[in-house]
Design goal:
CATH superfamily: Gcn5-related N-acetyltransferase (GNAT)
Number of strands: 5
Helix content: 25-40%
Low-confidence stretches: 7-11
CATH topology: Aminopeptidase
Distance between the termini: 47 Å
CATH architecture: 3-Layer(aba) Sandwich
Order of helices and strands: EHHHEEEHEH
Radius of gyration: 17 Å
Strand content: 15-25%
Number of helices: 5
Mean pLDDT: 93
Length: 174
């Protein structure tokens, strides 16, 4: 996590959360946060498959960088007192009936910066982007058993619309 900017007057001020569009200069921090996100998710149930299916492929600086400036995608950073502590990404998909669906692909806040509103601010920004883009709805993924993520999205007005069932095939199994 980046160091907090110095400033004597900030010593007694309440921290201020913010969200802004990410730029190329933010990619190293986003890549670092994405590494923390993967380290948190991969050990969880479903995390290994998430990392090779839904997780962004390397090189992450290029993968996240490709979202910058696209009309059908959004990459944001969440900040506390100007320091990046989280990031969010999403893309607009056109489904078979021609309607548009917003898909939040990444939403992560550094563990030391959670529970102060940064995640909620980024979620609000992404949902606002998808609404302005004419999306009929917004999807986001939560791994099974990751109750904090499930609760976070439910508090943001999300409900489950599908549950993906998975059977791991072991070598030699018929």
């Amino acid at each position: 996590m980046q160091e907090r900017p110095a400033g004597a007057a900030e010593a007694w001020a309440a921290p201020e959360e913010g969200v802004r569009l990410a730029g190329p200069e933010d990619l190293p921090t986003i890549v670092d946060l994405a590494g923390l996100m993967a380290a948190e998710l991969i050990p969880m149930r479903g995390g290994q498959l998430w990392s090779v299916r839904e997780g962004r492929p390397p090189p992450l600086d290029a993968t996240y960088g490709s979202l910058i400036g696209r009309a059908d995608a959004r990459l944001v950073v969440g900040t506390i007192d100007g320091v990046i502590v989280g990031f969010g990404a999403g893309e607009v998909e056109t489904v078979r009936d021609g309607s548009r669906l917003g898909v939040i692909t990444d939403l992560f806040v550094h563990p030391e910066a959670r529970e102060v509103g940064v995640g909620e601010a980024m979620l609000g920004d992404l949902v606002g982007f998808f609404t302005a883009s004419g999306c009929a709805g917004v999807d986001a993924l939560a791994l099974p058993g990751h109750r904090a993520t499930k609760n976070f999205f439910e508090e943001g007005g999300f409900t489950a619309r599908a549950i993906v069932m998975h059977h791991r095939v072991e070598p030699g199994e018929e």
